[in-house]
Amino acid sequence: MKKLINGVESVEEQMILGLVKSAPDKLRKLDEGNVVVRAQKKEGKVALVSGGGSGHEPAHGGFVGEGMLDAAVAGAVFTSPTPDKIFAGIQAVATDKGVLCVVKNYTGDVMNFEMAIDMAKDEDIEADYVVVNDDVAVKDSLYTTGRRGVAGTVLVHKIAGAKAEQGASLPEVKAVAEKVIANVRTMGMAISPCTVPAAGKPGFELAEDEVEIGIGIHGEPGTTREKLSTADETAKKLLDKILADIDFKGQEVVVMVNGMGATPLMELYVINNFVQDYLKEQGVKVYDTMVGNYMTSIEMAGFSLTLLRLDDEMKALYDAKADTPALKR
Amino acid sequence: MKKLINGVESVEEQMILGLVKSAPDKLRKLDEGNVVVRAQKKEGKVALVSGGGSGHEPAHGGFVGEGMLDAAVAGAVFTSPTPDKIFAGIQAVATDKGVLCVVKNYTGDVMNFEMAIDMAKDEDIEADYVVVNDDVAVKDSLYTTGRRGVAGTVLVHKIAGAKAEQGASLPEVKAVAEKVIANVRTMGMAISPCTVPAAGKPGFELAEDEVEIGIGIHGEPGTTREKLSTADETAKKLLDKILADIDFKGQEVVVMVNGMGATPLMELYVINNFVQDYLKEQGVKVYDTMVGNYMTSIEMAGFSLTLLRLDDEMKALYDAKADTPALKR
Amino acid sequence: MLDTAKAAEIIRAIAARMEAEKDFLTQLDNEIGDGDHGINLARGFKSVLEKLPELEGGDIGGLLKGTGMQLVSNVGGASGPLYGTAFMKAGNALKGKTEATAAEFAVAMEAAIGGIKMRGKSEEGEKTMLDALCPAYKALSEAIDGGDELKDALTKAIEAAAKGVEYTKTIIATKGRASYLGERSIGHQDPGATSSLYMLQEMEKCL
Amino acid sequence: MLDTAKAAEIIRAIAARMEAEKDFLTQLDNEIGDGDHGINLARGFKSVLEKLPELEGGDIGGLLKGTGMQLVSNVGGASGPLYGTAFMKAGNALKGKTEATAAEFAVAMEAAIGGIKMRGKSEEGEKTMLDALCPAYKALSEAIDGGDELKDALTKAIEAAAKGVEYTKTIIATKGRASYLGERSIGHQDPGATSSLYMLQEMEKCL
Ligand SMILES: Nc1ncnc2c1ncn2[C@@H]1O[C@H](COP(=O)(O)OP(=O)(O)O)[C@@H](O)[C@H]1O
Ligand SMILES: Nc1ncnc2c1ncn2[C@@H]1O[C@H](COP(=O)(O)OP(=O)(O)O)[C@@H](O)[C@H]1O
Ligand SMILES: [Mg+2]
Ligand SMILES: [Mg+2]
Ligand SMILES: [Mg+2]
Ligand SMILES: [Mg+2]
């Protein structure tokens, strides 16, 4: 394992400290743990709290700030944070308008956030949550864990964050978050794995000509292993799966071409070149495009594609001001 | 070589197309070649033109837009663009206030830009240039090529770009660009190499415990090869070299913690955590911090640190509005 | 006979075992999960060890509940709330007791399993820790009903749990991260079922 | 005797050689530069080949100038302007000529080297292409002054250039990217000096 860190024990905390010190007038770390909150608590709005394992940088701490999150709770790498830490985050930012937690659909995240919300309710904090499950690589089914929450989560942060910033009520913010969740779909792939610092070796191994299709964001293998093909063919494969899931034809969409952490921007732009042409061909109208590292898996190389079907409300909220380390608008 | 591309021949053009298609209302590609210009030509200001080899994404095309560049000319990967392409860029954005080219100090870049400027002058375009040479890894000397231009170039774009946007004259914009160059210092290191697509294999090989200190941004080896140590020790080594070069004590600075392309943000934040503490200890006041991928070497893993010593003029220009794909303020 | 001191000894033995099997459990989780199960449990039980001196003076219920709370606050992921809830529920069942009979142990184990099912919204046959724990409980309670001592009953429980672990290799996961792999999860043994087996083995060894 | 057809043949031979040595030249550049020298020249001479049919109908000067302009517009990097300028200067020296004597060839080569020095602000001894070209020119002009045919003079020039390439291994680079390596550039042979040697070898072979 070759990493620029000071030890596997300290990496999460030093990372959170490093983030906060990059914008000390805007961000603060709680003493209770690896929880990033806005330096100035914003009253009179629903507080938006997100979080999950570390290793997805800039998610989630990088999205704390005006127009997006009020708090982000970071667990150990790829491990959901514990209820006490999530509760500390909720408590620090809670207002009388309530708290909405944005949870990615993983057994661990859901359980830990549920327990934290129970703790918050015990303290008379009005708290609710939504579960993001945008990953079409995984079959949705009532009898299983269902789809994972991946890069689409960032768009939930953006749009629900804007709604909250406008002073909407908890049910209103929750409703728009759920609307985003209902309309956002993602699929990803990897050409090289990542290494959890504490594990010391990669989550899987790939030959020089192999890729994993249908990966999540935790260094886990994907749904199939295939031969490396061109950027265009690879992007087409992911897009076709997304386009088959809900109807995007004739709709306006936000496109996110998300790098997994070690993917050079060069490749993301090559991919975007195809994505834009293909969507046009398919009759999908692109309202806006985001290309970059938004929801990563440490130093995994690969990418995910996300489409969000917009309506007028989501469009306006997507365009609203955001001022966070990782997303400014 | 494992890359998400469609062929080594097409990569530069498809990348530029992909960039432009990510912001079609703001960016445009010239038919003449891989030249990115603002979609709406801005008259009445000095046009700022930069460029160099591809492989440094988001530099340089990602910095085209309000408050920064008017045109960015991309050569083949790590290869200076040719004079005719640079000239096409100059011609497309030139105004009657003139054109300033920001050139990084490489023999190839300097020669090609000089030839292009000669061509521009033949067409009665007022054109001048500055040469950025911020890399303290390399000894500065009258008898050699001198120091390289690396990540500090982005701050030249930002500050000279703001000055130009305000309508300053060509000599004024050139003067502030040269002030930034005089006050900015950078040093970088790599823990893994990168592969020029057309070459098909990495520029150098490193053992599991080796790093290159004092690298440039073209996949070339550094000035020394060493054993991998901690993030803190590595950052200290680079900072000490920078701090020894000009006097930063008691000064206000911009800090840039720049990823080389494949470095996870996790590591950049761990590094920033140390950098901020160490600078405080050394009596250097941090005015603002940038952490991210600004000037990369394709998929190299590693980082560079940049310090810019500010005065009031540079501070105000640094804070001025910028709206580009890779830098918004 | 299980008393508080013995229970503390078991917790220590489990903690040592989790540390010893950290890499192996993590490797199993690498194959069908996210490669942290061993790391998570080792971290969690290490924090339990720090808390143990405070807990071992009281009743078994308090000891188990405290263990569960430490796990909830220090493991994270899926196994944190699940094992945490299991220990807390077992603690509730043994509240106030400084000694527990084999039958009382069985009741606590049943409560623990119930806690996992409730928290995880899961059942046997989904390729989780339940595939070790449910058959183990069945064997244990039958043995105790048939008059076995706790240690002998646990020996039978371990046999059943080991079979359960083998069984997880043959089925598709429908809960937890491994479910994302669909068919590809077949052929791999579930990390949580494996760590459950190890816990039962440590209990048996200590008795 | 060098005429336009022969000059075109030489350019074709050089183009083929650059393509053949692409990987090796790139490898040399990997060691002390940025690993693109062979790629750059192969790309550049490929574009020269496309232009050649237009050029070979005229005089040698036009052919060389056109070659230089193609190199300037298609190579990029340091070697593009340098070799481009070299061919353009050589072309200027042979302007209007459809045949060139050995002495005229020497004058053109001198002009080419002068162009490189001017454009590159460089001198012999800095570990660049000049370390092959300068000694080659010296040997060539001496041989021609001594009455040698062009082919024989080029044979001597190649010997001198080859020694120059060897010499680049022993010195520190002070120009071009290799200069960033300081001491570390010692022991490596300069890619540009090597490609210059290849060009001279192709000229000699064609005559
Ligand atoms: N819903 C569930 N019910 C019961 N056990 C589960 C459930 N989800 C996951 N598990 C168990 O948790 C184990 C994984 O734990 P761990 O790796 O620590 O957490 P995570 O999956 O969050 O990384 C699985 O091997 C499985 O046995
Ligand atoms: N100032 C200079 N004068 C003469 N030759 C030079 C100079 N700088 C570089 N060179 C030559 O150019 C070669 C490198 O060319 P190339 O790799 O194509 O360009 P770049 O260095 O821009 O990648 C060097 O090996 C050297 O021979
Ligand atoms: Mg986990
Ligand atoms: Mg080059
Ligand atoms: Mg796991
Ligand atoms: Mg080169």
From TrEMBL, chains A, B:
Enzyme class, broadest EC rank: transferase
EC number of this enzyme: 2.7.1.121
Oligomer status and interactors: Homodimer. The dihydroxyacetone kinase complex is composed of a homodimer of DhaM, a homodimer of DhaK and the subunit DhaL.
Keywords: Glycerol metabolism, Kinase, Transferase
Top-level taxon of the source organism: Bacteria
High-level lineage: Bacteria, Bacillati, Bacillota, Negativicutes, Selenomonadales
Domain DhaK: 7-327
Protein name: phosphoenolpyruvate--glycerone phosphotransferase
Cellular component terms per the entry's GO annotation: cytosol
Pathway, per record: Polyol metabolism; glycerol degradation
Species per Swiss-Prot/TrEMBL record: Selenomonas ruminantium
Keyword Transferase tagged: yes
GO BP annotation list: glycerol catabolic process
Pfam families listed in its UniProt record: Dak1 (PF02733)
Keyword Magnesium: no
Catalytic activity: dihydroxyacetone + phosphoenolpyruvate = dihydroxyacetone phosphate + pyruvate
GO molecular function: glycerone kinase activity; phosphoenolpyruvate-glycerone phosphotransferase activity
From TrEMBL, chains C, D:
Function: ADP-binding subunit of the dihydroxyacetone kinase, which is responsible for the phosphoenolpyruvate (PEP)-dependent phosphorylation of dihydroxyacetone. DhaL-ADP is converted to DhaL-ATP via a phosphoryl group transfer from DhaM and transmits it to dihydroxyacetone binds to DhaK.
Subunit-structure text: Homodimer. The dihydroxyacetone kinase complex is composed of a homodimer of DhaM, a homodimer of DhaK and the subunit DhaL.
Source lineage: Bacteria, Bacillati, Bacillota, Negativicutes, Selenomonadales
The entry's keywords: Glycerol metabolism, Kinase, Transferase
Entry's Gene Ontology BP terms: glycerol catabolic process
Alphabetized GO MF terms: glycerone kinase activity; phosphoenolpyruvate-glycerone phosphotransferase activity
Stretches assigned to the DhaL domain: 5-205
Keyword Kinase: yes
Protein name as catalogued: phosphoenolpyruvate--glycerone phosphotransferase
Keyword check for Kinase: yes
